[in-house]
Task: structure prediction
Amino acid sequence: MDVGLNMRLRCISGKVGRALGVGLVFCAAAAAETTTIYTFTTAANATSQGNPVAAQAVIELTSNHIHVVLTNLLNNPLSVGQALSFLFFKVDNGTTAGTLTSSSAMSRDVKGNGTYKDLGTIATGWKLLGSGNLMELCDIGCGAAGPANTLIGGPGANNKYSTNSSIAGNGPHNPFLVGNAVFDLAVTGVTYQSKIQNVTYGFGTTAGYNVNAGGYTVATVPEPSAILLLASCIVAVGLISRRKRVTDVIAR
Result:
């Protein structure tokens, strides 16, 4: 083979090899993009102020980001004391500093006769605070929207709420939030490997009526975008590797 051609082929092979190495680095980075999802649910017999309560918090961890979905699972509440107004949790690295970048939930006005009207999706009006060694999402006593915008469950079997005066037609307490309340938090230093601990719910329009989270589940999954990127990387690396093998064979 011509010496000049051989040298050019070896040069091409070297470049392809370097491209292969870069591709492998990107593939590794894609594989590392994962999310850890914690699901905390109150115990079946949980109570607050003598009334049953039921709540769930789904907390997702990615790089420098915490995504929270808070749900009141109790239908047909008999008192505003069963409405969610706080969520406390601890990140294992001890951070309590973060920024609430966005929040949303359905707004619901409950009429005096127990019927209701949905007002559309709004910002929750809740705030993010540091409370000791805990992070706190709060609606009461923190300069947030409370006593309005506490989070209630659905209506009763007849598609009406109880006519209890603390809920139905109560001006200061209406509108409520209903369904899933979603919060996005920017928290420096959090990763999918961080751990969420000491989850506690607060109920009612007076601070201090707290209920510890019951059991929880945890799962670590790749993000959909990471799966697509990883698949693309594998295909690209395969093509680059094949080209390198062909070039090496010709160069010999």
